[in-house]
Structure formats: C-alpha cells, structure tokens
Predict the structure.
Amino acid sequence: MTTIDAAELRRRTRELLAAHPPATTGRTDFLRARFDAGLAWVHYPAGLGGLDAPRSLQPVVDAGLAAAGAPDNDPRRIGIGLGMAAPTILGFGTDEQKQRFLRPLWVGEEVWCQLFSEPDAGSDLAALGTRAVREEAHGDWIVDGQKVWTSSAHVARWAILIARTDPDLPKHRGISYFICDMTDPGVEVRPLRQITGEAEFNEVFLTGVRIPDSRRLGPVGAGWKVAQTTLMNERVSIGGSRIPREGGMIGPVARTWRERPELRTHDLHQRLLTLWVEAEVARLAGERLRQQLVAGQPGPEGSGMKLAFARLNQEISGLEVELLGEEGLLYSDWTMRRPDLVDFTGRDAGYRYLRSKGNSIEGGTSEVLLNIVAERVLGLPAEPRNDKDVAWKDLSR
C-alpha cells in the first residue's frame, strides 16, 4: 500500500499535469481529471476525489497546480456545495449518493443552495414548519413550505433541505434531511433585494415538491443531527476560510491608508492598528482551527470564528467609510442584479459597509452563536428551555 505523504502528492500532481496540460486541456476536463486522480480534496476517500490522505497536505497539491497555471473550481461560486453539502453527503449519504453528487459538485457542474431558514422560525431553526409527508403508494416525500435567505437559489441545481416529517415529536426530533431538485416544477424562487441593491438571496416556495426517498440523507427523524454537520461546516467555511495576511476586509482599508496619507488622523490610526491586529489574530486562529480539522469534523469552535468574522467585518468596513470621509458616502451602483456568487469584499467601500451588515445574520445569528460558544465551548450552564419535550404541533407560534 502506497503511503500518501507530501512527496507522493507532488509526484501525483506532476503526473496529472503531464497527462492533462492546463494550457491545452479544457477547464472542465482538467477539473474532472483532477477529481478522478484523488487530488480534489485529498482527505476524502479514494474514488470520491481523495486519497485518504491527511487534510493538512491539501496545500501541497494546490500550490503545485497554481504554479502550473491550472484552473481552480471557482470556490466562491460553489461555496455552499463545497463547504456544506459535500461534508454532509460524505458523512451521511449512501454510496450511490456520494457517487452521484460529489464529482459534479466539486467540479462546479452543479451549483448547490441551502433550504434551511424559514420566515416563521426566526433564529430558532428547529422550529421550522416546512412539511414532508410520506406518500404510501410510492414511498416518495411530498414537501410543502417556504424557505428564505437562500443564497444562489436562482442558479442552483440541487439544494440541501430540512423539513418536518413528524409534528407529534418535539421540534428537534421530528425533522428529516433531503436533497431537493431545484428544477422541480413545484419549486418557485423569488429574488430578495438587499440593502446593497443586489438580490444575492432568495425566498423559495415549495408546493407539492416530490422527493424520492433515495434522496433522503440519514434516517427519518434524524435530520437535526445531520443538519449539525452542515451548520458546523458552514460556520468554518464562512469564518475560517484560508486567506493571506491582509486578506479579507482589512486589505482595502490598509491599502487606502498607505496610498492616501491626506486622510489620516491619529484617532483613525489607533483604530486601524487595533483592527489590523485583531484581523491577523482571527486569521491565524482560523489556520489553527483548520489544522484541528485533521482530527475529524469541525466542532462548535467554528461558531467562535464566525462571530469574530462578523464583528470584524462590520467594524473594519465602518472604519473604512469614516477614513474616506465624503467619498465614503458615495455608492457606485444600485443596479438590481442577481449575482452568481457571494462577494463580501468586492466593489467599493459603501458596498462593503452595507454587505457586512448581513454577516451577523447569515450562517447563524451572532446571538445564537454566542449561546453555542457559551454552552458547548466554555461549558457554561444552558439557558432554560421549556419547549424541549413539547410536541412541535403544540408549540406557540
């Protein structure tokens, strides 16, 4: 049996490049070949885009391919698939589901979205009311309900979906997890225009959507457990993504400070230094968190990273608007559009300031994440909850 170490990965990377030169191989063909060679995500099982190698060795492959000018899979466009759907399918999917979905997901041939949040559930995701009823004749599930704040629903081929399958059980126990076909005629996607002017998010209406039982992930009624895998990975992918020094929100304001000395004041200097240090601490903490992932699935610590991400983005973007003075009040383009990807730092200072307001809501509100950190990281007493053993149908709504 070949031991997969850094040297072996470099050898396999060279073989991939020799067999499929990036200069003469189409982008999709190259990405498919990379997946089949086990160099997509090296820690995944052999045959599913990986080699059962340590997760920490992925940068060895990425660096070799980047140096050769190989294309990537545009991770910002397919972030929900890569960061949330894939680890959930890997952890709970059948062999058939893994073979069907993981390759086109990683290559970017199929975009995914996440049908979790609902307008009537607020921050209490477990209170969701979308129903999935088992059809006796065929065993399919018929889904009716509404989801909201769904990024990329307008371009998605598939969705990860949680729905209530037993209203007689307490809210956390009567939920099941499904893969939903976004091309089903019962799926209606409507844009939600945001404060930025864009409609990056959507609301999704599900009316008589038929989902075969073969697209259920995990046992019936175990959807909350499956969803925890999705949510923990989501918070790491949002708050703990790998970025270089002065990457992310701190980069544009640091460049403005260096290039526009006439804007500087002593007070702004002190605030920028403080936020620069905090951003660097958060970046290094994220790197440490990713190293810990080598040992297994992400834990509640990812909630702390996502909390820091939201707070820093909002404070840094606010400082940037102040630094620019009157220029910071300008907004370049309010055109209504439906972008293909989530962009936290693009465009201008006004866009960054407004877009960052959503960072404390998406991927779990900061208030909910504070509870998770308090209870599951710090071990503090849980808040009293009088609805844990009450059937969902009997809850006040």
Q: What stands out?
A: Strands lie at 112-115, 131-134, 141-147, 158-164, 175-181, 187-192, 201-211, 216-217. The chain has a mean pLDDT of 91. Residues 232 and 291 are 15 Å apart (CA to CA). The longest strand covers residues 201-211.
